[in-house]
Amino acid sequence: EHPASMVMIKDTVLNVDTASPKGIVEAKEFEIADSGMIDVIISSFVLSASSLFTQSHKGRAFTLLRHPVDTAASNFVKRKGRSKDLRDLELELHQYVSQDWYPDNYMVRQLSGVLPGDTITEHHMDLAKNLLSAKFFIGIVEEMEETVRQLQ
Predict the structure, then answer these.
(1) How far is it, in rounded angstroms, from Cα 83 to Cα 87?
(2) Who has greater pLDDT, 152 or 142?
(3) Distances (CA, A) of 23 to 46, 100, 114, 149
(4) Distance in angstroms (rounded) separating the CA atoms of residues 41 and 61
(5) Is 124 in contact with 112 (CB distance < 8 Å)?
(6) Strands (E), the chain
(7) Model pLDDT for residues 80-95, shown as the tens digit of each residue
(8) Is the dihedral of CA 107, 113, 118, 122 positive or negative?
(9) Are the CB atoms for 112 and 105 separated by under 8 Å?
(10) Torsion of the alpha carbons at 106, 17, 22 and 82, rounded to the nearest 10
(11) How far does Cα 78 stand from its chain's mean position?
(12) Which of 45, 122, 142, 149 has the fewest CB atoms within 10 Å, i.e. the most exposed one?
């Protein structure tokens, strides 16, 4: 039986929750990579999601990177739109990124396994860069046409 997080859409798209650790665990239990039902897995939890692949169905990773300031600004606008508490604070972007709860260095944390609140060192940065370099096709959001061309 399919996990609760799995939903077929129009018999051609399988929507699986890989946006949460719980969803990834469910997808792994279903052996999603070996199911023959998927072509792409998308997740911000890169290390956890990599556990979905098997020896017979190895994944190829790609990521689309965006300038960190553009990412912070976009997240700020989205969060401000969704959070009354954040709107009430009347923060500017530079104040938002200076808050203790701001998720700094998100990609480095994801790729090197550093938890929020823990200090990131040069070693963690090197781990993240090496993992990206060795395992990922890297596209640039601001160069989407070229990124798509190279992916083909």
Answers:
(1) 6
(2) 142
(3) 13, 28, 21, 32
(4) 9
(5) yes
(6) 7-9, 13-15, 61-65, 136-140
(7) 888 888 888 888 899 9
(8) negative
(9) no
(10) 50
(11) 17
(12) 122
Distance of CA 20 to the CA centre of its chain: 10
The pair phi, psi for residue 113, each rounded to 5°, is 75, 20
If one counts every other C-beta atom within 10 angstroms of the C-beta of residue 10, the result is 5
Output the six-digit token pair for 97: 């990124």
Q: Which residues pair with 15 in a beta bridge?
A: 7
* Cβ atoms < 10 Å from Cβ of 31: 11
Residue 59 and residue 40: Cα distance in Å, rounded?
Answer: 9
Beta carbons within 8 Å of 147's beta carbon, 6+ residues apart: 64, 139, 140, 141
DSSP single-letter state for residue 50: G
Residue 13, both tokens:
């798209």
Q: What's the whole-model pTM score?
A: 0.69
pLDDT tens column, 106-134: 889 988 989 888 999 999 999 999 999 99
Beta strands in 11-152 (DSSP E): 13-15, 61-65, 136-140
- Strand 7-9 to 61-65 pairing: unpaired
